[in-house]
Amino acid sequence: MSAHKYELMFIADPDLDERALKKLTEQYLETVTKEGGAVEEPDFWGRRKLAYEIDGKTEGNYVVVNYSAEPAVSAELDRILNLNESVIRTKILRKDAK
């Protein structure tokens, strides 16, 4: 199996400060690097208004990260992101499909 390119976007709790958000992001990206994947520099978009209220929140901290990894690594990353209560929403897109 070969690595694929992915884009991860997640929305974190708006109450997290910048340091906590960076720490949270690094923690998840470690999942990718520990399995031999490559991660580009995360793009922190900051606090933005959500399109609709999620769990009583109207804003969230947006983070976008491009990375390369095996499909199983992306599945695991998605699984652990969804377990964290500080993460409101996640979306992982495969960029090199087709």
UniProtKB/TrEMBL annotation:
Gene Ontology CC terms, in alphabetical order: cytoplasm; ribonucleoprotein complex; ribosome
Top-rank lineage group of the source organism: Bacteria
GO molecular function: small ribosomal subunit rRNA binding; structural constituent of ribosome
One Pfam family here: Ribosomal_S6
Entries under NCBIfam families matching the protein: S6
Entry function: Binds together with bS18 to 16S ribosomal RNA.
Similarity remark: Belongs to the bacterial ribosomal protein bS6 family.
Protein name (database record): Small ribosomal subunit protein bS6
Lineage of source species: Bacteria, Bacillati, Actinomycetota, Actinomycetes, Bifidobacteriales
Gene: rpsF
